[in-house]
Amino acid sequence: MKKVIYLLLISFNFVLSSCQSQTDYIKASESEIDQEELNFAKDLSHKILTEQKKGGYYNLTENEATSKMAEGLNESLQKASYKKIKALFGDYKDLKFESLMIGTKGNKFKIYRFKGIFDSGSDVEVRAVLNNKRKLAGFFIKPWNEAL
Hints:
The chain is of the alpha+beta class and 148 residues long. Helices cover 34% and strands 26% of the residues. The chain has helices spanning 2-11, 35-53, 67-72, 75-89; strands spanning 25-27, 92-103, 110-118, 124-130, 136-143. The chain has a five-stranded antiparallel sheet with strand order 1-2-3-4-5.
């Protein structure tokens, strides 16, 4: 568990304070899910993890991510993060959409939660946080937990 916490703190130093309270988010119904946005979040998450698996990194563009996110999820961080992810969960294989959590109380973030498929077979969450401009504002890999 310490390794996972360390991984999150070191690997993804971009923390959204508005994402810390589950009560600020509600689960979206299927009819509320924008399929184009879902595909964007899923494809981008897949690209990031696939490039890391190959030993490279995914260079986020200004159309895909906030400037803070693009700077934070740079080449060295992605490469170091994947080594830790691989040590904990094995190599990345794929992901499957699980749910969308929509921010309430004035925040405009959407949390796309995917079940990550890794060699270990562990229940892993791949979380892509999008802002109201449909840009990646947060990206997390962690053990699956039903609660945010």
